[in-house]
Amino acid sequence: MLDKFKDLFQEMPKGLPPLRGIKHQIDFVLVILVPKKDGTWCMCMDYHPINSIMISYRHPIPCLDALLDELHGACVFSKIDLQSGYYQICMKEGDK
């Protein structure tokens, strides 16, 4: 696909885009290893400390029946992930 659109790239990408220096992690979750009956370990996490800073959604996810009722009779379906898709494709400088 990159060969088909060579004119759009200043230089061909040599691999994945560089890391952008953003780390997504939660450091204050208590992790406990609990032994299971078969001798293996189970990793359990205590999320109670972060419950106070979590943002609750005002609009819960609708049930499947409600979604199917809303889509009844439709013949074209689409889904575009614009939020996380923006940084997935490197663009030519000046076109951003």
Note down, in words, how this protein is organized.
The protein is of the alpha+beta class and 96 residues long. It has a domain at 26-85. The chain is 12% helix and 12% strand. The protein is built from 2 helices and 2 strands. The protein has helices at residues 64-71, 82-85; strands spanning 30-35, 41-46. A two-stranded antiparallel ribbon has the order 1-2.
Tell me the β content.
Answer: 5-15%
Order of helices and strands: EEHH
Q: What is the 3D shape?
A: extended
Largest sheet: 2 strands, antiparallel
Give the low-confidence spans: none
Distance from N terminus to C terminus (CA atoms, Å) equals 20 Å
The helical percent reads: 10-25%
Q: Rg, please?
A: 23 Å
Output the structural class: alpha+beta
Assembly of the depicted chains:
single chain
Mean of all residue-level pLDDT scores: 76
Tally the beta strands: 2
With strands numbered from the N-terminus, the spatial order across the biggest sheet is 1-2
What's the helix count?
2
Organism: Mucuna pruriens (Velvet bean)
Protein name: Reverse transcriptase domain-containing protein
Core attributes:
single chain; 96 residues; alpha+beta; two-stranded antiparallel sheet; 12% strand; extended; Reverse transcriptase domain-containing protein; RNA-dir_DNA_polymerase; DNA/RNA_pol_sf
